[in-house]
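A.,

Following up on our hallway conversation. Structure tokens first:
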């Protein structure tokens, strides 16, 4: 017989969860706000996750025979309680796909003046973001390294306080595959591309793509935003290369299987207010707290529910034989909380070349 606790938490555990906020304030929010079908689905799935409403099952140890009843999980990709196992399995299966070289971490950020237009045209504008970043990096790979660059790109739409902040995290091996696929061309140990040049090319490509879609009538005219975008310096951030391929994989797993907020950051839910912990990137990454009205908290969280599933363009290669496009893309043949892995090239011919290049260095 299943336990009767409705919250899905262990007995005696008082720490609040995202599900508690949706249960206590979700109904009033739905009555006063116009929500998309995707947003309503997320709110319901998180609210009933690991409760009697979804039924239960019996966990049994194969070694000692111990049995324990447990509620079923919702397996929604936005639920903070349904990602850990999927991440562990995904990391295990992807370890063999990494190249034995160093990796660089680049972040491409869209200016905040653009947020309103993105929120009104998520599907088109986020696709353009991926396209502009992909074209920029592949162009630099051709001109600076003389080969085809491998890219793993993951979309983030939020900052630490859940505000809209659209940017791509890109993991890139330190080198490129020659055009004839015969050798791996190694990059410098501590430098890949100049970030100022990357930001200018990225800005130009994105605005050109945007104008093209405006001319075709897919997006309403946005002359004011475009003029403001030309005047701003776009941000491209480059971190030092990671120490090992496994470090890269662990880092990627944190981003492909993370929703906008984890339960351990919710400190309290009292008197219609939600208190969160966050790290202030502008103040030395110090840990701070912020208190929001429950309505504002739900509004911010639902900003990051994507009403579509991004897919990788077919002309984008990957030296890792895996490209993750979007924060939570799904494969119809895989469990609903695991990301799509799009394999366009076998690593069989790439790995020996990469190992040889590393030995030469």
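Then the amino acids I'd put at each of the 361 positions:
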């Amino acid at each position: 017989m299943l336990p009767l606790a409705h919250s899905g938490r262990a007995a005696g555990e008082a720490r609040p969860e995202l599900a508690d906020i949706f249960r206590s304030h979700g109904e009033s929010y739905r009555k006063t706000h116009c929500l998309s079908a995707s947003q309503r689905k997320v709110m319901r799935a998180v609210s009933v996750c690991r409760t009697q409403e979804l039924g239960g099952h019996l966990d049994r140890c194969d070694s000692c025979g111990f049995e324990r009843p447990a509620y079923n999980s919702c397996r929604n990709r936005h639920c903070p309680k349904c990602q850990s196992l999927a991440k562990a399995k995904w990391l295990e299966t992807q370890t063999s796909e990494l190249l034995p070289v160093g990796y660089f971490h680049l972040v491409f950020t869209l200016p905040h003046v653009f947020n309103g237009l993105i929120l009104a045209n998520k599907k088109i504008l986020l696709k353009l973001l991926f396209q502009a970043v992909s074209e920029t990096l592949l162009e630099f790979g051709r001109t600076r390294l003389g080969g085809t660059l491998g890219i793993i790109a993951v979309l983030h739409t939020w900052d630490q306080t859940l505000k809209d902040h659209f940017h791509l995290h890109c993991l890139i091996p330190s080198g490129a595959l020659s055009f004839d696929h015969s050798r791996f061309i190694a990059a410098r140990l501590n430098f890949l591309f100049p970030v100022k040049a990357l930001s200018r090319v990225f800005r130009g490509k994105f605005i050109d793509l945007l104008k093209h879609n405006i001319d075709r009538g897919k997006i309403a005219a946005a002359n004011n935003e475009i003029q403001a975008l030309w005047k701003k310096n776009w941000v491209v951030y480059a971190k030092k290369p990671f120490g090992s391929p496994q470090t890269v994989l662990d880092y990627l797993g944190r981003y492909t299987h993370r929703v906008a907020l984890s339960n351990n950051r919710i400190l309290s839910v009292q008197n219609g207010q939600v208190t969160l912990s966050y790290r202030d990137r502008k103040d030395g990454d110090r840990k701070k707290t912020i208190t929001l009205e429950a309505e504002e908290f739900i509004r911010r969280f639902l900003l990051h529910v994507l009403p579509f599933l991004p897919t990788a363009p077919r002309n984008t290669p990957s030296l890792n034989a895996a490209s993750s496009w979007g924060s939570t893309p799904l494969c119809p043949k895989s469990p609903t909380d695991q990301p799509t892995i799009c394999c366009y090239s076998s690593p069989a011919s790439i790995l020996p070349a990469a190992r040889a290049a590393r030995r030469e260095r």
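The two ends are 63 Å apart (CA to CA). Curious whether your intuition agrees with the design.

B.
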